[in-house]
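testing teh design pipeline on a random one, pls ignore if ur not involved
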């Protein structure tokens, strides 16, 4: 039986095709996709960046119901709703042995180097499938981006009672904001150009919101004359990264979370970083942090329903990727592709 899949056949060409339905091999499960989130990475892949191999079924934020288990799978059953960790690591290389699985020297990932979730069925190692309780598939599909946020939190190690400044109130920014708040940060100030996003940030727990623009710098200095303990960005904008140190308090921790263009560079003052005891922290992908994300989702401590702006069928993936060229889509937040929708 063939299935329908959104396939990037070559850079900048996306087609919905009939392809063979995969069969789970030893140690694998097959998942009937309930929802797959659209992410900036999918757009980069569409444009031919990263180590993409075409043809590729993209989509790495996947949740669905197990419909077949392969030989040797003991701890999962058909009918279970699972969230998939897309990172497939070898477990044997130098990076894996150091516990840095997302840097595996033989890195593979669902929706990046192997068939992902913008289709009806996806096969994954059973060890990548995490059973989910009390969530819809669309909510469970947030386990992957929130797992990346969880890794960022583990990298950042926020101090209890500290305060944070966050640039960017897109879906990732709004997840990061909530994760900071459930990780002991007392107050988060959020900056974004879009007032609707700032309003949502406020609803989800932001202590203050500031619209980006010329008066922003003064507004932030008025809020925290000595600077913020944590300055994080979820924008991928080099200009934002350059501006971050000026808002940090002495001893401040700066988290670069957004995906900047690979060739971008920024100007920073080494003297300033030295003299004010600043820390500059990067965070890449997720590293075994999907269960932590699920615990935040299942406990209701982190809200994701308000982040879903669109639910669309496979045929609309192209529109979702290029939403900026479709005024009708408005200010998209997280777009969920529902293959059976
Ligand atoms: Zn993603
Ligand atoms: Zn490895």
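output:
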């Amino acid at each position: 039986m063939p299935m329908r899949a959104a396939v990037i056949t070559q850079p900048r060409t996306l087609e919905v095709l009939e392809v063979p339905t995969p069969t789970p091999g030893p140690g694998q499960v097959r998942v009937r996709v309930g929802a797959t989130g659209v992410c900036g990475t999918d757009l980069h892949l569409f444009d031919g960046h990263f180590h993409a191999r075409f043809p590729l079924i993209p989509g790495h934020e996947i949740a669905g119901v197990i419909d077949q288990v392969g030989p040797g799978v003991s701890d999962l059953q058909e009918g279970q709703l699972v969230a998939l960790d897309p990172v497939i690591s070898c477990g044997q290389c130098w990076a894996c042995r150091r516990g840095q699985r997302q840097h595996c020297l033989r890195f593979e990932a669902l929706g990046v180097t192997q068939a992902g979730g913008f289709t009806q069925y996806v096969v994954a190692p059973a060890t990548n499938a995490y059973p989910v309780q009390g969530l819809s598939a669309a909510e469970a599909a947030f386990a992957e981006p929130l797992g990346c946020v969880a890794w960022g939190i583990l990298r950042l190690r926020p101090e209890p009672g500290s305060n944070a400044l966050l640039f960017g109130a897109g879906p990732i920014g709004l997840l990061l904001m909530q994760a900071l708040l459930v990780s002991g940060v007392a107050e988060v100030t959020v900056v974004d150009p879009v007032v609707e996003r700032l309003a949502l940030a406020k609803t989800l727990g932001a202590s203050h919101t500031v619209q980006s623009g010329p008066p922003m710098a003064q507004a932030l200095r008025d809020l925290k004359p000595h600077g913020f303990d944590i300055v994080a960005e979820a924008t991928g904008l080099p200009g934002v990264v350059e501006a971050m140190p000026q808002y940090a308090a002495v001893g401040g921790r700066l988290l670069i979370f957004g995906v900047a263009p690979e060739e971008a560079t920024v100007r920073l003052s080494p003297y300033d970083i030295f003299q004010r005891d600043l820390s500059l922290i990067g965070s890449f992908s997720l590293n075994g942090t999907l269960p932590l994300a699920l615990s935040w989702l299942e406990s209701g401590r982190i809200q994701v329903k308000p982040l879903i702006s669109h639910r669309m069928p496979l045929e609309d993936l192209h529109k979702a990727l290029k939403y900026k060229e479709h005024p009708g889509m408005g200010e998209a937040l997280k777009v969920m592709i529902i293959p059976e929708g």
